[in-house]
């Protein structure tokens, strides 16, 4: 360890870290090439060949040329995922439009209780309707 100074170790770590960052950027560019809807097959093939044959220059050119649309696609995909997640939550919770359903069990039970209290239905009818709702 005496023949490898501490400063050289820091430089090695820095270059290794930059190389790993570049690899992440390369994979990100390749993923963006494939998910881009505005590129045709030949354009995708051309960008992919450029990014793989001349990796450093190809990635740099791609980020300069299509970096803005790359960010827009990221934002759009995040919005779509968020909307899908919110729709899943609404479906799982049994609500529509973010609020309670007008025909939800709680509302139906409260209407049944009101009808029973007003004498419009008997206790037996109330119990049968309640059991149907809770099943």
What does this protein look like?
By secondary structure, this protein is mostly helical. The chain has helices at residues 6-35, 41-53, 55-93, 105-118, 123-134.
Task: Give the SSE map.
Layout: H1 6-35, H2 41-53, H3 55-93, H4 105-118, H5 123-134
Helix pairs in contact: 1-2, 1-3, 2-3, 4-5
Distance between the termini: 74 Å
Backbone shape: elongated
Helix content: over 70%
* Class by alpha and beta content: mainly alpha
Order of helices and strands: HHHHH
Characteristic key phrases:
single chain; 80% helix; 135 residues; mainly alpha; 0% strand
Short description:
The termini are far apart.
């Amino acid at each position: 360890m005496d023949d490898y100074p501490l400063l050289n170790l820091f430089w090695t770590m820095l270059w290794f870290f930059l190389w790993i960052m570049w690899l992440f950027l390369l994979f990100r560019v390749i993923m963006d090439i494939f998910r881009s809807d505005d590129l045709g097959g030949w354009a995708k093939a051309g960008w992919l060949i450029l990014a793989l044959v001349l990796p450093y220059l190809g990635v740099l050119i791609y980020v300069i040329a299509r970096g803005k649309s790359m960010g827009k696609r990221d934002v759009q995909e995040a919005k779509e995922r968020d909307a899908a997640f919110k729709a899943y939550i609404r479906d799982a919770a049994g609500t529509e439009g973010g609020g309670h359903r007008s025909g939800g069990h709680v509302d139906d039970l409260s209407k049944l209780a009101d009808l029973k209290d007003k004498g419009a239905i008997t206790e037996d009818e109330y119990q049968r309707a309640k059991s149907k709702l809770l099943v």
